[in-house]
């Protein structure tokens, strides 16, 4: 019996459907180490992320906050395997980014993505432009981050031939 290989990949342009919501699992629990490492790697000296005494004394949360850029990066990152792994040509832009509620160490971030619109690229044959709306929630279902992302993805190889 011969073995057939199946490689994990994201979606080709033709496989994206508007109005579909993708639930990206597993979630990712944020840790103190994630926060300190990401914050120092990106040279963000915000005391709300690094200084426990300062953050504990600060209104209204009285705790260190997970760096919102970590939240955004992780939210997008958790969508890659399901949506764009190996089919992405380029990330074209991000917008409508909001952080309506903070994320704290110990919180678990889960992400969902809705395909808002798609069109074939007018300048790059064999590709299409897709706008994705990402929503990140904590373990209680509270929305902690939202963002739209516009990506250029490959069409199915047989579709572009």
**C-alpha end-to-end distance:** 32 Å
The residue-averaged pLDDT reads 95
What is the rounded Rg? 18 Å
The CATH homologous superfamily is termed Hotdog Thioesterase
Structural class: alpha+beta
Looking at the structure, what is the overall shape? elongated
Number of domains: 1
Question: What's the level 1 CATH class?
Answer: Alpha Beta
Pfam family, one: MaoC_dehydratas
InterPro entries: HotDog_dom_sf (IPR029069), MaoC-like_dom (IPR002539), MCH/BMMD (IPR052342)
Organism: Microbacterium sufflavum
Family: Belongs to the enoyl-CoA hydratase/isomerase family.
Describe the 3D structure.
With 161 residues, the protein is of the alpha+beta class. Helix content is 24%, strand content 35%. The protein contains five helices and five strands. It has helices at 32-41, 47-50, 52-56, 68-83, 157-160, and strands spanning 21-29, 88-98, 108-120, 127-137, 143-154. The protein has a five-stranded antiparallel β-sheet with strand order 1-3-4-5-2, with helices on one face. Strand 3 and strand 4 (127-137) form a beta hairpin. The longest helix is centred in the middle third of the chain and has 16 residues, at 68-83. It is elongated and about 60 Å long. InterPro entries: HotDog_dom_sf, MaoC-like_dom, MCH/BMMD.
Task: Supply database-style keywords.
161 residues, alpha+beta, Thiol Ester Dehydrase, Chain A, 5-stranded antiparallel sheet, 5 helices
